[in-house]
């Protein structure tokens, strides 16, 4: 998670540019001016059984399908989300696993936390970032517990369909076929509003409610991730991509299941949305992946999952042409990205939520940036999404 940053709603095969823009907050501190953020060393308690059981109550905030809209409406009217005793449970799976990101850069103060696995979802790395620097970020996709997963994603584009099975199997980031593994944080309503803002919720993501399963009390991290839960499920909120809904709807339609209408985004949030032709192609940067690996280690997540993260190949510039292309590309586009980020801080609501015109502007900027890469930079300077040595001949 993002996702984050990460924000990864968890996300699907394609994301809105604004959601990716928020991930720029995870870039090196020199780009954002966020340096040496101190983190409270006080241990965070484990989320209690009673708090988890509370999610079964229909009136709980954890099950409120309109909570994100309520928060967004308050922010759009310039109102701050008041600090109350009410809390929500939020599922993190990307860079928000790392305390450096979640508690440091984002400034979230979780009240409790617990490691979980989510059979309904799987981890992906398919949120477009910035070529040559941060090619992609973490997201999620629905899984069926079968090989149909690959089929659902294969119809994203003709390019993906023509790649061939041997190349698809070479994607180390797709070698994990088990459930999504992450951490559920208990946060205040005000902090959840901040998460929505910093992860682009309501723009490229939508707020979703997912069944999470805690690991058994006697679970050893050296054991495999359970495929069939033996612990009671509880509800947690996470940020999902509209593309994840697209994939689920296609899968349901193929199997003849009941199809539920997907939530629609406001028209100004969909202007200029950029999609990559093959969501499996790009590799995450070493910097970004290290945040996820660090977070997984901090929370003592299953060793098998940490080993999977450790073997994911990251993007590296390997030729002089790529180095030159990276320099020119960043000189050309980073000032515009910084401009949009500055405007988002200047024009945003109390928690940093951007106004609709700025969302559309960010989407169009990202579309232009990626178009310049596809039409010129990739052809002249070389690959900015995947290390050349990892591309099958």
TrEMBL record:
Q: What class of enzyme is it?
A: lyase
Report whether Iron shows up as a keyword of the record. Answer: no
Which amino acids does the record list as binding substrate? 90-95, 288
Q: Which GO terms describe its molecular function?
A: gamma-glutamylcyclotransferase activity
* Domain of life per record: Eukaryota
Q: Which InterPro entries match?
A: G-Glutamylcylcotransferase
Q: Please list which residues make up the signal peptide.
A: none
- Record-listed E.C. numbers: 4.3.2.9
- Write out the entry's keywords from A to Z: Lyase
Q: Which residues form the active site?
A: 199 (proton acceptor)
Record-given protein name: gamma-glutamylcyclotransferase
Identify the taxonomic lineage of the organism of origin.
Answer: Eukaryota, Fungi, Dikarya, Ascomycota, Pezizomycotina
């Amino acid at each position: 998670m993002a996702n984050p940053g990460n924000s990864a709603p968890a996300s699907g095969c394609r994301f809105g540019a604004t959601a990716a823009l928020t991930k720029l907050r995870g870039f090196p501190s020199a780009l954002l001016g966020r340096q040496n953020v101190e983190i409270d060393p006080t241990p965070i308690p484990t989320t209690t059984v009673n708090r988890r059981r509370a999610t079964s109550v229909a009136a709980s905030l954890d099950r409120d399908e309109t909570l994100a809209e309520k928060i967004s409406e308050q922010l759009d009217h310039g109102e701050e989300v008041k600090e109350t005793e009410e809390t929500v449970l939020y599922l993190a799976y990307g860079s928000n696993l790392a305390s450096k990101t979640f508690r440091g850069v984002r400034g979230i103060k979780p009240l409790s936390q617990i490691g979980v696995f989510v059979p309904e979802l799987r981890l992906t790395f398919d949120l477009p970032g910035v070529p040559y620097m941060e090619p992609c970020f973490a997201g999620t996709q629905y899984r069926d517990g079968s090989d149909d997963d690959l089929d659902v994603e294969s119809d994203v584009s003709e390019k993906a369909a023509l790649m061939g099975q041997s190349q698809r199997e070479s994607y180390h980031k797709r070698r994990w076929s088990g459930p999504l593994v992450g951490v559920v944080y208990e946060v205040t309503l005000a902090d959840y509003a901040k998460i929505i803002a910093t992860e682009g919720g309501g723009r490229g993501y939508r707020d979703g409610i997912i069944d999470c399963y805690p690991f058994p009390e006697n679970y050893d991290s050296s054991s495999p991730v359970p495929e069939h839960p033996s612990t009671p499920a509880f509800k947690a909120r996470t940020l999902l991509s509209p593309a994840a809904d697209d994939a689920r709807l296609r899968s349901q339609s193929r199997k003849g299941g009941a199809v539920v209408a997907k939530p629609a985004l406001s028209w100004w949030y969909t202007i200029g949305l950029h999609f990559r032709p093959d969501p499996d192609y790009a590799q995450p940067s070493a910097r970004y992946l290290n945040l996820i690996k660090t977070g997984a280690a901090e929370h003592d997540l299953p060793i098998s999952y940490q080993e999977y993260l450790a073997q994911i190949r990251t993007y590296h510039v390997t030729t002089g042409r790529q180095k030159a292309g990276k320099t020119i590309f960043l000189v050309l586009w980073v000032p515009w990205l910084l401009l949009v980020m500055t405007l988002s801080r200047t024009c945003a609501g109390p928690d940093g939520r951007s106004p609709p015109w700025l969302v559309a502007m960010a989407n169009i900027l990202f579309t232009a940036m990626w178009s310049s890469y596809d039409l010129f930079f990739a052809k002249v300077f070389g690959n900015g999404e995947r290390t050349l040595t990892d591309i099958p001949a």
